């Protein structure tokens, strides 16, 4: 999930263009049959493999994951190249990738077993469904935080409409809340954390940072009256603490977290 090697990542969409996505492999009387469903073009729009119709499409978790990983690649490149592009171009790319991620996620989640991961094969694929959802929320958080000074740490200048900045800030917090809900069984319950891929742990860290930054901002204000639509102070802090506890558990499995995670918060 990193931008290396750069030439490969930068051409990822072109290289994956028109190659069939991971296929469904149903069991039939004569054995197993590979059923190709979709392929992506160079703009990362899907189309059905010839001789297939929309009504015959079979939901495949691995294919959905490839789609969302493709969006995450472009999100990374946008963040990397942000300073070298104009504000207008960056905002256009932000909105385009945000819409693409949302359209892919909503379509995939509304089809087949992705909507309810506990089907006949749901328990087996729950970790992959979790990964797909985590990627989607992190795409939105990463994209929209770029123009919100509170989350990016930099001022993007007066050329960005304050209303756009406000909407992006709301989007960041909304997806941080959704990500926290996604990890609730692992943060507060008895979910098996060994099923969590490293990227999901990274997302837990980012979610904690979002809520911690929001809490610090609220504490810096002279008025402590609650603002409609925001979480109360105790709720934000409990999410930060939950993220910290989760990372503290994960450090036994990941070398990158061997140092005390308390140094990051």
TrEMBL record:
The chain crosses the membrane at residues 199-218. One of its GO terms (molecular function) is DNA-binding transcription factor activity, RNA polymerase II-specific. The keyword Transcription regulation applies. The keyword Nucleus applies. It is found in: Nucleus. Coiled coil: none annotated. Keywords: Membrane, Metal-binding, Nucleus, Transcription, Transcription regulation, Transmembrane, Transmembrane helix. This is Uncharacterized protein. GO terms for cellular component: nucleus. It comes from the Eukaryota.
């Amino acid at each position: 999930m990193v931008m290396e090697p750069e030439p490969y990542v930068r051409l990822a969409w072109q290289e994956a263009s028109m190659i069939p996505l991971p296929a469904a492999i149903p069991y039939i009387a004569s054995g197993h049959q590979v059923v190709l469903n979709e392929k992506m073009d160079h703009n990362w729009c899907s189309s059905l493999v010839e001789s297939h119709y929309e009504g015959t499409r079979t939901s495949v978790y691995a294919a959905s994951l490839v789609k969302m990983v493709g969006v995450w690649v472009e999100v990374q490149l946008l963040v990397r190249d942000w300073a070298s592009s104009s504000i207008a171009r960056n905002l256009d790319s932000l909105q385009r990738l945000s819409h693409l991620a949302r359209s892919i996620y909503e379509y995939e989640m509304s089809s087949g077993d992705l909507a309810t991961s506990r089907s006949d094969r749901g328990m087996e694929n729950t970790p992959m469904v979790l990964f797909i959802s985590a990627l989607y929320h992190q795409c939105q958080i990463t994209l929209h935080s770029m123009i919100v000074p509170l989350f990016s740490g930099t001022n993007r200048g007066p050329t960005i409409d304050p209303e756009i900045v406000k909407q992006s800030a709301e989007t960041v917090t909304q997806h941080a809340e959704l990500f926290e809900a996604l990890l609730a069984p692992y943060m507060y319950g008895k979910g098996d954390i060994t099923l969590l891929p490293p990227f999901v742990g990274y997302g837990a860290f980012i979610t904690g940072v979002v809520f911690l930054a929001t809490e610090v901002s609220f504490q810096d204000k002279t008025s402590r009256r609650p603002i409609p639509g925001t979480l109360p102070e105790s709720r934000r802090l409990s999410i930060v603490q939950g993220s910290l506890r989760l990372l503290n558990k994960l450090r036994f499995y990941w070398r990158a977290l061997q140092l005390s995670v308390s140094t990051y918060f």
